[in-house]
Specification:
5 helices; globular; alpha+beta; 5-stranded mixed beta barrel; OB fold (Dihydrolipoamide Acetyltransferase, E2P); 182 residues
């Protein structure tokens, strides 16, 4: 007995496949790409500070376009803030596979002799752009010098930082009016 070809079933299967892939190019933060769509997937071994990590292969990465909040004076809340931000960052990456899109390479001579690391956009397993998440939570601020030639990312990151300041998240809840200006 011959089975008749059923175009409607083929169409249904194709439609379901397309529906499953719809939106694969964007994550919930609106940044292009998802964890596996761009860059290289690496497994994070340890977090170093607030915005750097080391992979299980020994490669070092920093978050592109942001920097940890360096406080020029010792404040009574500074140690608590630093501990809170390190814990948040570590919980986001350590032991996880993340996708890195290298935006800037550093060689051993700069900025630290003997250490190589790349600055990257880092996508978490769920597609969240960690660089944006850290700004959104008030744990880092935008590094305008690093983004001076990347106005699209600079403007997006500054808008996120402005919202974090207004919501007094992270460091902004302690030192809202004294952190680096917009």
């Amino acid at each position: 007995m011959k089975t008749a070809f059923k175009p409607s079933l083929l169409f249904l299967a194709l439609a379901m496949s397309l529906a499953a892939c719809f939106g694969c190019g964007e994550n919930k933060n609106g940044a292009a790409g998802t964890a596996g769509a761009k860059g290289t997937t690496v497994r994070v071994h340890s977090a170093t500070g607030i915005d750097f990590f080391t992979t299980t292969e020994g490669k070092n990465y920093g978050l592109y376009g942001v920097q940890g909040l360096n406080l020029p004076i010792q404040l009574n809340w500074a140690d608590n803030y630093k501990s809170e931000s390190r814990t948040f960052f570590s919980n986001c990456v350590v032991g996880k596979d993340v996708s890195v899109v290298v935006k800037k390479e550093f060689k051993p001579s700069a900025p630290t002799p003997g250490i190589t690391y790349d600055k990257a956009l880092v996508y978490l397993p769920d597609g969240t752009l960690l660089n944006e998440k850290m700004i959104e939570e008030g744990y880092v601020h935008v590094n305008k010098d690093e983004l001076k030639d990347d106005s699209e990312t600079l403007n997006r990151f500054l808008a996120i930082e402005k919202a974090a300041r207004a919501a007094k998240k992270g460091a902004w809840k302690y030192w809202f009016d004294k952190m680096p200006a917009d």
